[in-house]
Amino acid sequence: MIFRTRFKILPAVCLALFLLMAFISEAAEIKIPEPSDKDKCPVCGMFVKKYPDWTTVIVFKNGSRQYFDGAKDMFKYLFDMKRYDSRNKKEDIVSIAVKDYYRLSWIDAHSAWFVEGSDVYGPMGLELIPLAKEADAREFITDHKGKRILKFPEITREIIKTLD
User: Fold this and answer.
1) What is the pLDDT of residues 111-150, one digit of tens each?
2) What is the pTM (predicted TM-score) of this model?
3) What's the pLDDT band for 31 if we cut at 50, 70, 90?
């Protein structure tokens, strides 16, 4: 009897785990204030509010934020913070958010899927395209001739250099 009960529960447990994994693998939408008219990208100096679809942000423990006009400049900043920001340190970062290309909503950058080498250009030319769902990234790569899909830790200084 116990044997049969376990086999009835097992499919439900497997389904629940599958759904949980699917939920975890997508970048969740988060709340971030939009940049002001005065916020400039610390890497290139552009006013980021002019490019709301491309805006990315790093939030620090002290409540300050650095906005960027695209993921490419955000990664440049992260790879060389001393050059671009004498006030903040990597260990003081609370969160990093990017805009999902299709939904234009803030998502956690560490959960995002980034497409490299597409025919879609950002304010500074070639750009990494952030998406919340892997399925969206796969569709985007096909529709826009992208080279590959990357997760946050896979993005290197060398990859960013190829976008300049």
Assistant:
1) 999 999 999 999 999 999 999 999 999 999 999 999 999 9
2) 0.82
3) confident
Instruction: Render the burial of 5-35: b for 16+ CB within 10 Å, e for the rest.
Output: eeeeeeeeeeeeeeeeeeeeebbeeeebeeb
Q: How many residues appear in the chain?
A: 164
Q: Which of 76, 31, 68, 28 is nearest to 52 (CA)?
A: 68
d(CA 106, CA 35): 12
What distance in Å separates the CA atoms of residue 150 and residue 137, rounded to the nearest whole number?
9
- CA 117 – CA 146 distance, rounded (Å): 5
Of 55, 39, 143, 145, give the one whose Cα is nearest residue 100: 55
> What pLDDT is attached to residue 25?
46
In angstroms, the Cα distances linking 19 to 23, 103, 131 are 6, 22, 19
Ordered by start, the domain boundaries in the chain are 28-162
DSSP, collapsed to helix, strand or coil, labels residue 57 as: strand
- Cβ atoms of 112 and 132 closer than 8 Å: yes
Cβ neighbourhood burial of 66 (10 Å; 0-12, 13-18, 19+): buried
47: number of Cβ within 10 Å = 15
